[in-house]
Amino acid sequence: MRIATRRTEPPWDRRRVHPGVGTRRAAAALFTLLAPAALAQAPAPTPTPLTLGIEVDVVSLTVVAHDKAGRFVKGLGPKDITVLEDGVRQDVTYFREAAATEGEERIPLSVVLVLDTSGSMGKNMGFLQEAASSFLGKLEPGDRALVVQFNETVKSSAEFTEDMDRLESFVDALQPWGATSLYDAIQYALVRIRDQSGRKAVVVFSDGEDTASQTDEDDVVGLAKAVEATLYTVGIRSGAGMYSRSPRGFLRKIANETGGQYFFPERVGDLIKTFAAISAELKAHYLLAYSPQKGPDGLFRTIEVKLASKDVEVRVRKGYFAVKRRSQD
Predict the structure, then answer these.
(1) Do residues 109 and 154 lie in contact, with contact meaning Cβ atoms separated by under 8 Å?
(2) What is the largest CA-CA distance in the chain?
(3) Do the Cβ atoms of 320 and 300 come closer than 8 Å?
(4) Hey, what domains does the chain have and what are their CATH numbers?
């Protein structure tokens, strides 16, 4: 029996697993932490025990609010929003800005940078390294990051850390070579970030379509729905300048499904500006939580967030699959 209690503490302090937000196949991959063989060269995370919430199941969402000119809107509170799940109004148990406000500490961020180091990057690698280092330098105290590089294999900077100098050294050492295992890299990033506390984001950069992954596109999109992380994706033309080999459609889809944004700068020299725009949005997040009125049934549920003001628009993930969760033995 589910007890309808009102949460007052920050939802990231609870040791629980949120309701699954993906296909059954993706949920299975999430819970068993299965990764393709191509990930073997990346440090394997130590799985944490899965525990259920004691009082209620909670859906946690990242929300971005902006006016019609695209400027971020601050100062919203619980009375300003309405949350609908499958068209039914839900009881919002938590809603606040991620930034520090009067009487409230800042909500920390965990972020994974997923960077394409395939052979096609060639002359563009220096632009990517500069943009990635600039992004890391804009993270705030308490934020933790992990850098993942991919070509025909996937490797990472070991563990999430607040040591940005160490991560920048990892970025500076990147070398372009090999094929493109984009799907494997995103899957790996999602598995690594799923148990991190606070807000969660994955920033993906690639200049070409996947050519080497063992994971397929549908599985990656499903897993993205199963992990409460917002994805921001950046795509550029490959060195050959071929639109047909661009991952543009996939990158747009996975960002839209998770409430993030997709960027396709015309010039590789614009990467610093693009990564700065992502950094600014991460600082403008709101965190929202609510307790679904219906128990898990394995079906997809749409999520809609409405604001009282018609001059403000919001961006949030499209929904989730309410899969049943395994209790700890």
Answers:
(1) no
(2) 59
(3) yes
(4) 11-97+287-321 (no CATH), 109-283 (3.40.50.410)
Q: Token pair for residue 40?
A: 């073997």
Residue 142 identity (one-letter amino acid): G
Residue 169 contacts residue 117 (beta carbons within 8 Å): no
For residue range 49-83, list pLDDT tens digits in order: 322 222 337 888 999 999 999 999 999 999 999 99
Q: What is the pLDDT of residues 100-158, one digit of tens each?
A: 888 889 999 999 999 999 999 999 999 999 999 999 999 999 999 999 999 999 999 98
DSSP string, 33-96: T---GGGGGSPPPPPPPP---SS---EEEEEEEEETTS-B-----GGGEEEEETTEE--EEEEE
Residue 87 zone, left/alpha/beta (φ > 0; ψ -120 to 50; rest): left
Helix (H) or strand (E) holding 235: strand 230-235
Q: How many CA atoms lie within 13 A of 66 on its CB side?
A: 14
> What's the confidence (pLDDT) of residue 116?
97
Could you identify the residue written with the tokens 């090999």?
Answer: 178
- Residue pLDDT, tens place only, 306-324: 998 989 999 999 998 887 6
**Counting Cβ atoms within 10 Å, is residue 125 exposed (0-12), middle (13-18) or buried (19+)?**
middle
230: buried, middle or exposed (CB in 10 Å: 19+, 13-18, 0-12)? buried
Considering 41-55, 241-255, 267-281, the range whose residues carry the highest mean pLDDT is: 267-281
